[in-house]
Specification:
The complex is a heterodimer of chains A (82) and B (172). Chain A is mostly helical and 82 residues long. Chain A contains two helices and two strands; from the N terminus they run E-H-H-E. Chain B is elongated. Classes of the chains: A mainly alpha (82), B alpha+beta (172). The A-B interface holds A 6, 8, 10-11, 14-15, 17-18, 21-22, 24-25, 28-30, 32-35, 37, 40-41, 43-44, 47-48, 50-51, 54-55, 57-59, 62, 77, 79, 81 and B 14, 17, 19-21, 23-25, 27-28, 30-32, 34-35, 37-39, 41-42, 47-48, 50-52, 105, 140-141, 144, 161, 163-164, 166-167.
């Protein structure tokens, strides 16, 4: 197996997740400062889910088995360092 | 090549290069940081600065002053639940009594009465006095408001926290 290129779509998805997280955190912080804590568990659950998706995308999906192990040709987008 | 470069053959241009995957990992860790922040808010029992305190050991009511002590258009500073809980009582020109925590919802400076509304001198934020909504400057959330009663004994009493309306309802 070899490392697959990290696609722009995956990067865009992670960027979107971070934007959602920033908005979520801002909203939750405002609510807490207003003395409303009821939405904290739900916000935390959503945040954990989004973070799990981002972590899986960034750290786990690295290899593809469709590319033959002996193929040394670089795939587009690979930095070729690791 | 200089001697030290042969001993430490590090290509700075190559080292500073950030791959797409490395950037994605950084973003994922930022996302995890936001999750940790929300988890901290959930686990934290003590209210944040500027947030209304939950009912606790402190007295829920306080006689602030006499009704005749503060004329219309004037204000009176007091502390409510503890010496750090600084609040301001305002007797409006319309004859209403309003009390707010002095903590500005922007960065926590103490707001003061300017004769027409409440102003935060740090960043020129202004709040209207009837409900504490921000009307000018960087604050986006209303002040923490206290319930005020004028009782038969002639005293002005603060009797607890009032539910703070959301910023969105203030904009509508």
């Amino acid at each position: 197996m070899r490392r697959a290129p990290f696609t722009g779509a995956a990067l865009a998805l992670i960027l979107l997740i971070v934007l959602i997280q920033a908005y979520l955190f801002d909203t939750v912080l405002g609510a807490v400062l207003d003395g409303q804590r009821s939405q904290l568990p739900g916000a935390l659950a959503v945040s954990v889910l989004l973070t799990a998706v981002a972590l899986v995308l960034a750290f786990k999906i690295q290899y593809v088995s469709r590319i033959p192990a002996g193929d040394t040709e670089k795939a587009p987008g690979l930095d070729g360092r690791r | 090549m200089a001697g030290w470069k042969s001993l430490f053959p590090v290509d700075l241009a190559e080292e500073s290069r950030l791959s797409r995957r490395e950037f994605a990992r950084f973003l994922a860790l930022v996302s995890a940081g936001f999750t940790g922040g929300i988890g901290y808010l959930w686990l934290r029992k003590k209210p944040l600065d500027g947030a209304p305190d939950p009912p606790g050991e402190a007295p829920a009511t306080l006689r602030v002053c006499g009704a005749g002590d503060v004329g219309p258009g004037n204000s009176f500073l007091f502390t409510f639940r503890n010496p750090q809980d600084r609040c301001i009582l305002v007797h409006t020109l319309q004859g209403h009594w309003r009390a707010y925590r002095q903590t500005c919802t922007h960065l926590g400076c103490a707001v003061r009465w300017d004769g027409r509304g409440l102003e935060c001198p740090c960043h020129n934020g202004h709040f209207e006095v009837e409900q504490g909504f921000p009307v000018q400057g960087p604050p986006t959330r209303p002040l923490s408001r206290l319930d005020v009663e004028v009782r038969a004994d002639g005293g002005v009493w603060v009797v607890g926290d009032q539910d703070r309306p959301s910023a969105m309802s203030g904009l509508s």
